Amino acid sequence: MQVAEWNEVVFTDESLICLQHHDGHIQGWRHREERMLNIYVMHHRTGPAPGNMVWGGIGYHSRTPLIRIAVTLNSQRCFSEVLDPVVLHYYQGLATAIFQLDNVRSHVSRIVQMFFVNHQIELLPWPARSPDLSPIENMWSMVDQRLTQPPAVTPHQLWQRVEASWSVVPQ
Question: What pTM, to 2 d.p., does this model score?
Answer without folding.
Answer: 0.76
